Amino acid sequence: MQFFGGGSLTSVAPEVTPSPAAPPGTGTGANAQVLYVFNRNGVCLLYREWHRPLHTLDPTQDHKLMFGLLFSLRSFTSKIDPTTAEKGNLGVPLLPGQGCSFYSFKTNTYKLNFMESPSGIKLILITHPRTGDQRDSLKHIYNLYVEYVVKNPLYAPGTPIK
Amino acid sequence: MPPLTPPKSGDALFASVDRVNAELFTLTYGAIVRQLLTDLEEVEEVNKQLDQMGYNIGTRLVDEFLAKSNVSRCVDFKETADVIAKLGFKMFLGVTATVTNWDAEGTSCSFVLEDNPLVDFVELPDTCQGLQYCNVLSGVIRGALEMVSMKTEVTWVRDMLRGDDAYEMRVKLIKQVPEEYPYKDDD
């Protein structure tokens, strides 16, 4: 099932109607490089790549690595949060959405944008490093997920999206 | 850094969701229950089946609710209950519930519904007195809360179809289940 055509964040495949309005300011950037969607158990529900020149790992390893990275990073970022008073020990598992949650990290070659819903659905979008804040786009993607995946009666929750 | 959009109010949510005709909804639900009674015949079985159906609905419903209503993580169970009563019920059924009867530890509360769109035009015959007609609602709440890591138990205390004056559902939080790292470390 194709959410985007040609890597553009604002276009949705023509046979899919109606769709939620695209957020303003996304422009026509052919910017998205890789997209992952994970559920709370680590199952990769969706993986799409538009521009990924270097493949270092095979897909299952790649998914596990990505999920593990984000899980640990989220736990870590909320433990060293200087603004909240109450912290568990490092290693105590967190409820999804609890504590502060990071939403992007940037390297010199790419930027990884992340969003997690309270139900544990994690959206990861890898883009060009100069991309602006993508939280609205990620929210838009989450809305699309809800609209077309969750509401699809033939979809079994927890299985990869076809 | 641009501010995140605040959560919408109940009425705005209700207006933004696609709506179906209320009678169609009520009659469809009534037809489902009727068919289950014919197929299963045992009232207890029907109750269980309604709960299971509600559970499956709830696990999907919660994503839609979170996406449309933009609420962030609730700090505690009290806030969760308020959000369900004001935003959740309003968004999906068009009625608001009131939250009452908190117990001492704050883990158990009641949702009271004055009017319930599922039971319009419904009367229970004498042969089905044990039937929890709205059991699907308790399943929905249980399923939805389980997807946000809260294990709960939901029971019906008062039911207008049996002669009480309102619908009252008791929701008890059993525990909060934090996420666990799903992969084993040895591979």
UniProtKB/TrEMBL annotation, chain A:
<dbReference type="InterPro" id="IPR007233">
    <property type="entry name" value="TRAPPC"/>
</dbReference>
<protein>
    <recommendedName>
        <fullName>Trafficking protein particle complex subunit</fullName>
    </recommendedName>
</protein>
<dbReference type="GO" id="GO:0005783">
    <property type="term" value="C:endoplasmic reticulum"/>
</dbReference>
<dbReference type="GO" id="GO:0005794">
    <property type="term" value="C:Golgi apparatus"/>
</dbReference>
<keyword id="KW-0333">Golgi apparatus</keyword>
<keyword id="KW-0256">Endoplasmic reticulum</keyword>
<comment type="subunit">
    <text>Part of the multisubunit transport protein particle (TRAPP) complex.</text>
</comment>
<keyword id="KW-0813">Transport</keyword>
<dbReference type="Pfam" id="PF04099">
    <property type="entry name" value="Sybindin"/>
</dbReference>
<keyword id="KW-0931">ER-Golgi transport</keyword>
<dbReference type="GO" id="GO:0006888">
    <property type="term" value="P:endoplasmic reticulum to Golgi vesicle-mediated transport"/>
</dbReference>
<feature type="region of interest" description="Disordered">
    <location>
        <begin position="1"/>
        <end position="25"/>
    </location>
</feature>
<dbReference type="InterPro" id="IPR011012">
    <property type="entry name" value="Longin-like_dom_sf"/>
</dbReference>
<comment type="similarity">
    <text>Belongs to the TRAPP small subunits family. BET5 subfamily.</text>
</comment>
<dbReference type="GO" id="GO:0030008">
    <property type="term" value="C:TRAPP complex"/>
</dbReference>
Automatic annotation (TrEMBL), chain B:
<keyword id="KW-0333">Golgi apparatus</keyword>
<comment type="similarity">
    <text>Belongs to the TRAPP small subunits family. BET3 subfamily.</text>
</comment>
<dbReference type="InterPro" id="IPR007194">
    <property type="entry name" value="TRAPP_component"/>
</dbReference>
<dbReference type="Pfam" id="PF04051">
    <property type="entry name" value="TRAPP"/>
</dbReference>
<dbReference type="InterPro" id="IPR024096">
    <property type="entry name" value="NO_sig/Golgi_transp_ligand-bd"/>
</dbReference>
<dbReference type="GO" id="GO:0048193">
    <property type="term" value="P:Golgi vesicle transport"/>
</dbReference>
<dbReference type="GO" id="GO:0005783">
    <property type="term" value="C:endoplasmic reticulum"/>
</dbReference>
<protein>
    <recommendedName>
        <fullName>Trafficking protein particle complex subunit</fullName>
    </recommendedName>
</protein>
<dbReference type="InterPro" id="IPR016721">
    <property type="entry name" value="Bet3"/>
</dbReference>
<comment type="function">
    <text>May play a role in vesicular transport from endoplasmic reticulum to Golgi.</text>
</comment>
<dbReference type="GO" id="GO:0005794">
    <property type="term" value="C:Golgi apparatus"/>
</dbReference>
<keyword id="KW-0813">Transport</keyword>
<keyword id="KW-0931">ER-Golgi transport</keyword>
<keyword id="KW-0256">Endoplasmic reticulum</keyword>
<comment type="subunit">
    <text>Homodimer.</text>
</comment>
<dbReference type="GO" id="GO:0030008">
    <property type="term" value="C:TRAPP complex"/>
</dbReference>
